[in-house]
């Protein structure tokens, strides 16, 4: 009789499977743990930094694989710069007082802002509509009076664009030729002395400003010009000996004190220094143009006889600039931004930051 049989059990052909499953499960658990640890196994460390760099909202590669909450990424808070406070640019030259901010709205109206949301946005399109020089005597500090009977206070009015995503303008003022703290020993003080190699144009700006404080015209004077009616010559309000009443005629007659040329030179140098400090390159500039700088720095060697005394140091330049192709390149002006510190977070694992 024909029988048909077959075994109802048979050897499982994949003997290695349970080991693979076991080891695989362990490896998978380990991998997930590692990814998870890489994603979240750190603390957020808080620091103040002047550098807003690529670390801001930078995802780790593991965070790109497994999307996690955006709140766990490092960020830098933007700064809120209020009106009426003083700032420097990253070149740490002149001090700027912020007079106001306004934003140009799409409908053409301007919205005045109480403060500016700022994160190292470049300063652009600056204009200086006015440079005001005040010849003053007794209303200066004792240290200034000790240096000279008369001095000039200089004030630059600047309007700049800060492109922080919106079209925001800022009005700045900057001043003072001879600081009230002149007894600290410098004829013109920037927050930090510009480096002669990195910030060459600003270094010359500081030198020329201190040179121009040597105007002989800062001897006691009886002249006082107060107002400039629109489109007309300045009115002379105090003018002995029936001299002419306009600046051009006074200058032509060489009537003392003949401060017009010096004031003009000073204003041009001040203008150039402000523009260099603000990183503006599209206007003619004495401190970034070799030929102009050569002409304007001619008198720098006599500075030690006129500005300097035993306790007052002028400069830093001691010899005139001589234009040449190599040095002229170094006078180039680099962009500027307002110098501020930002509260930032970064990932920290023990003592390692990433
Ligand atoms: C940015 O990341 C680099 C390493 O990628 C680190 O050295 C640096 O300290 C970080 N900067 C900040 C402000 O955390
Ligand atoms: C708004 O601000 C811009 C830029 O400073 C200026 O040119 C314009 O005249 C202002 N508009 C008004 C209506 O004040
Ligand atoms: C800023 O200046 C640049 C170059 O001069 C010009 O192209 C741009 O239109 C100006 N921006 C504004 C908002 O005036
Ligand atoms: C900004 O300054 C300019 C010139 O100094 C002035 O004409 C303008 O009115 C100022 N803008 C505001 C909003 O105060
Ligand atoms: C240099 O000094 C001379 C003599 O004091 C003066 O006439 C001339 O204007 C000065 N030049 C500059 C650029 O200040
Ligand atoms: C000024 O400098 C010149 C040249 O370096 C030097 O001959 C002169 O003595 C100096 N004058 C003073 C007051 O230091």
Any overview of this molecule?
- With 354 residues, this protein is of the alpha+beta class.
- The protein has one domain (79-330).
- It has helices at residues 17-40, 61-65, 142-147, 200-212, 247-252, 260-277, 290-296, 303-306, 325-330, and strands at 43-49, 79-82, 86-87, 96-104, 110-113, 115-118, 123-136, 151-163, 167-175, 224-227, 235-238, 342-349, 352-353.
- Bound molecules: 2-acetamido-2-deoxy-beta-D-glucopyranose (NAG) (6 copies).
- Residues 301, 304-305 line the site of one 2-acetamido-2-deoxy-beta-D-glucopyranose (NAG).
- Keywords: Membrane, Transmembrane, Transmembrane helix.
Top keywords for this entry?
354 residues; alpha+beta; six-stranded antiparallel sheet; three-stranded antiparallel sheet; binds 2-acetamido-2-deoxy-beta-D-glucopyranose
């Amino acid at each position: 009789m024909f029988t048909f049989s077959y075994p109802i059990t048979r050897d499982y052909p994949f003997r290695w499977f349970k080991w693979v499953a076991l080891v695989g499960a362990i490896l998978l658990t380990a991998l997930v743990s590692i990814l998870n640890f890489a994603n979240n196994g750190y603390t957020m460390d808080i620091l103040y930094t002047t550098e807003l760099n690529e670390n801001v909202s930078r995802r780790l590669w593991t965070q790109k694989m497994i999307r996690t909450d955006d709140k766990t990424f490092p960020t830098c808070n933007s700064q809120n710069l209020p009106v009426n406070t003083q700032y420097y640019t990253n070149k740490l030259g002149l001090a700027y007082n912020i007079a106001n901010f306004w934003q140009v709205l799409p409908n053409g109206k301007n919205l005045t802002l109480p403060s500016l949301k700022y994160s190292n946005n470049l300063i652009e399109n600056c204009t200086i509509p006015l440079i005001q020089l005040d010849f003053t005597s007794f209303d200066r500090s004792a240290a200034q009076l000790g240096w000279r009977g008369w001095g000039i206070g200089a004030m630059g009015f600047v309007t700049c664009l800060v492109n922080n995503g919106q079209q925001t303008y800022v009005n700045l003022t900057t001043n003072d030729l001879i600081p009230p703290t002149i007894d600290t020993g410098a004829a013109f003080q920037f927050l930090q002395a510009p480096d002669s190699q990195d910030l060459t144009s600003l270094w010359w700006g500081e030198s020329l400003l201190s040179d121009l404080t040597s105007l002989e015209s800062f001897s006691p004077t009886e002249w006082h010009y107060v107002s400039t009616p629109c489109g007309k010559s300045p009115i002379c309000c105090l003018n002995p000996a029936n001299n002419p009443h306009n600046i051009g005629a006074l200058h032509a007659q060489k009537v003392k004190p003949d401060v017009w040329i010096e004031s003009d030179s000073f204003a041009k140098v001040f203008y150039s220094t402000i523009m260099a400090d603000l990183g503006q390159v599209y206007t003619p500039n004495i401190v970034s143009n070799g030929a102009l700088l050569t002409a304007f720095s001619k008198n720098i060697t006599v500075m030690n006889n006129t500005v300097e005394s035993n306790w007052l140091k002028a400069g830093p330049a001691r010899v005139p600039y001589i234009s040449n192709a190599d040095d002229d390149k170094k006078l180039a002006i680099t962009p500027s931004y307002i110098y501020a510190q930002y509260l930032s977070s970064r990932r920290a694992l023990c003592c390692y930051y990433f």
